[in-house]
Amino acid sequence: GDSVTQMEGPVTLSEEAFLTINCTYTATGYPSLFWYVQYPGEGLQLLLKATKADDKGSNKGFEATYRKETTSFHLEKGSVQVSDSAVYFCALSNDYKLSFGAGTTVTVRA
Amino acid sequence: ETGVTQSPTHLIKTRGQQVTLRCSSQSGHNTVSWYQQALGQGPQFIFQYYREEENGRGNFPPRFSGLQFPNYSSELNVNALELDDSALYLCASSLEGLDSYGYTFGSGTRLTVV
Hints:
The structure holds 2 protein chains of 2 kinds. By secondary structure, chain A is mainly β. Chain A is globular. Chain A has strands at 3-6, 11-14, 19-21, 23-26, 32-38, 44-50, 56-59, 62-65, 75-77, 86-94, 97-100, 104-109. Chain B has strands at residues 5-7, 10-13, 19-24, 31-37, 44-50, 53-57, 64-68, 74-78, 87-94, 104-105, 109-113. At the A-B interface, strand 5, strand 6, strand 10 and strand 11 of A face strand 5 and strand 10 of B.
């Protein structure tokens, strides 16, 4: 079945540091790929998405590129802020459901 | 444009009881999915409803059931609650169940079973 594996956390960074969270997937067919963010006590917010190979999703300074050859969708941000502290989930959509990774907790210190 | 709203936000139930969680979809969305997120884990797909019919189901027992109403709002019912049912339950709506349109999530209902 479909599965998503993402880098284990927690990740602690200083403000303005570079952030990378690795994500790889296993799926049949051609899934769409997503990054969701979850702030404490809240639900999930869509951060970015890519629907086909070589697509780059971007939002709020975050980027991720759909790499079919390596089945990856790594999340990057060049300069993080304290407000980026959250849990980040990589997910894929195949048919009618989303399959999520376990989440990576990111803490950014001033 | 309204988002997805869930009620209640928090709930405490006793093992063996039954619970109903509610979800109002984003305006214009006709598909609703439910997810269970245990503490420290990613959400797990429970089931999806499209135009009032169950459209797909994850690996959850039959005591997890749902309904979708003509206005596209939805309920998740769980019977014979177990301690392991303690989790954040998330509702997500979408248009035609297509991921290209994106899924909009509610803030969830935190269920505690004691």
